[in-house]
Write a structure and sequence with these properties.
The chain is α+β, with helices and mostly antiparallel strands and 364 residues long. The chain has 12 helices and 9 strands. The longest helix has 33 residues. The radius of gyration is 22 Å and the shape is globular. The N terminus is likely disordered. It comes from Candidatus Criblamydia sequanensis CRIB-18.
Length: 364
C-alpha cells in the first residue's frame, strides 16, 4: 500500500474546516453547531498530536530521523487511536488506549504480550504504560474474515482458552449484563428508548440464566470480544487483536461471540463445538452455547445504546419502531439504536422459544 508523505506539522484548522463543511450541511440548530465546532476542534488537535507522538515513538524505536510514513486507522468502538507506520516496507501498528486507566492498560499490555508469545496475537515490539501505547506487528489479511473456516475459528478459541492465564477475572452476568441493566434503569433517556416490557422480560430471563449457569462453572483465559472485526487470517492461521476486555472468564463467552458474529445456525454451532472439543458436544454444552448467545446479544444491544451520546429523548423513537437501516451513519445514534433493537429483539424472541426452555431444563 502506498502512503502519501505527511507534513507532521500541518495547520490543524485545515483538517478541522474540511470536517466542519460536512457537519454544517446537516445542522439542525445553532446549539448543535456550537457542539460540533467544539468537538471537531478537540478531535482535530488530538489526532494531530497523536500523529506527532507516533512519529517520535517510531524514530526512537527504529533509530532513524526520516523515511517514516504514517496513516491513521479506524479504531472502531474501542476508543483507541491506531496508526499504521511504514518504514522502507516494514509495517507496524501503534495503538493508543484512551478510555482506560493506567492499571487497566498495564493489564492489556500483559495480555497482548501473552497473546504474542502464545502465537495467537500480533507480535508486541514495544509498550509504555505511562504514555499509553503499544507498538505491534502489522498483520495483513490473507483471507476475507467472512471466509475463515469453522475449524480455524475453533482452533483460535482453543489456543486462547488453553493458553497462559490472565491476571484478572470477570463474570459476564455481573459485569456486562446486570451492571448495564442497572445503569439503563437509572438513565431517563435510555428508559424512554427501551420499551418497559422488554426490560422486564430481559431481567426475568437474566435471573433464570444466572441460576442455570451457577451449576456449570468454568474459568479460562478469554478474549472477551472475539468477533470478526477483531480477527485476522495471516501466515496460514487465525489471529485475534484488541484485548481490552480479556480476562479469566467463561470460555463459552468467546464461543458464543464467534457464533453470533458469524451468524451460525444450529448445525454450524454443533460443528464448531465438535472442532473445539475434538469430539461430539454434549447436550449441556450445546445448551450452554445457546444460552450464552442470548447473553452476548443482550450485551451487544446494551453496549450500543451505551455508546449513544446524550441527546433529547424526543428525537428518538422507541426501539420497537426501528426496522430499516437505509443509508445511516455507522457512528450515528440512529444506526446504533437500530442495531441495538435487532440484538435485543433476537434475544427476546429466543426467550419465548421451546429451545430456550429446554436449554434451561438441561442446564438445571
Amino acid at each position: 500500500m502506498d502512503f502519501e508523505k505527511r507534513n507532521f506539522f500541518p495547520d490543524p484548522f485545515k483538517k478541522m474546516m474540511m470536517n466542519m463543511k460536512k457537519v454544517i450541511m446537516n445542522l439542525a440548530s445553532v446549539k448543535s453547531f456550537v457542539f460540533a465546532l467544539i468537538f471537531l476542534i478537540g478531535t482535530s488537535f488530538a489526532s494531530e498530536n497523536r500523529e506527532i507522538e507516533t512519529l517520535q515513538i517510531m524514530k526512537d524505536f527504529l533509530k532513524v530521523d526520516e523515511g517514516i510514513q504514517i496513516k491513521e486507522l479506524r479504531g472502531g468502538y474501542s476508543g483507541a487511536d491506531l496508526f499504521l507506520v511504514d518504514f522502507e516496507g516494514q509495517k507496524f501498528v501503534v495503538r493508543f488506549s484512551n478510555q482506560i486507566s493506567p492499571e487497566e492498560f498495564q493489564k492489556e499490555i500483559s495480555i497482548c504480550e501473552i497473546a504474542s508469545h502464545a502465537g495467537y496475537g500480533p507480535k508486541v515490539y514495544l509498550s509504555d504504560e505511562e504514555r499509553g501505547f503499544i507498538v505491534m506487528e502489522y498483520l495483513v489479511n490473507e483471507l476475507d474474515v467472512e471466509k475463515i473456516s469453522i475449524p480455524s475459528l475453533a482452533e483460535l478459541a482453543k489456543k486462547i482458552h488453553e493458553g497462559p492465564s490472565f491476571s484478572s477475572s470477570s463474570n459476564i452476568m455481573e459485569l456486562h449484563i446486570f451492571r448495564m441493566l442497572d445503569y439503563i434503569y437509572s438513565q431517563k433517556f435510555y428508559s424512554e428508548v427501551i420499551p418497559l416490557d422488554w426490560m422486564e422480560r430481559i431481567l426475568q430471563a437474566c435471573r433464570e440464566i444466572n441460576t442455570s449457569l451457577e451449576s456449570f462453572p468454568k474459568e479460562a483465559p478469554c478474549h472477551g470480544d472475539l468477533h470478526k472485526a477483531n480477527l485476522f487470517f495471516s501466515n496460514g492461521q487465525c489471529y485475534a487483536i484488541d484485548y481490552e476486555l480479556a480476562s479469566m472468564s467463561d470460555p463459552f463467552l468467546d464461543l458464543a461471540t464467534l457464533s453470533l458474529s458469524y451468524d451460525f445456525d444450529k448445525g454450524q454451532d454443533n460443528l464448531f463445538l465438535t472442532h473445539y472439543f475434538n469430539r461430539e458436544p454434549t447436550q449441556k454444552e450445546q445448551s450452554k452455547l445457546f444460552i450464552m448467545k442470548q447473553l452476548v446479544s443482550l450485551y451487544w444491544g446494551f453496549g450500543l445504546i451505551n455508546l449513544i451520546e446524550d441527546g433529547d429523548p424526543a428525537t428518538f423513537t422507541s426501539l420497537k419502531k426501528y426496522s430499516q437501516m437505509d443509508e445511516l451513519d455507522f457512528e450515528g445514534s440512529e444506526y446504533k439504536l437500530i442495531m441495538a433493537s435487532k440484538y435485543l429483539q433476537k434475544a427476546l424472541d429466543n426467550f419465548e422459544s421451546f429451545e430456550y426452555q429446554e436449554a434451561l431444563r438441561i442446564l438445571n
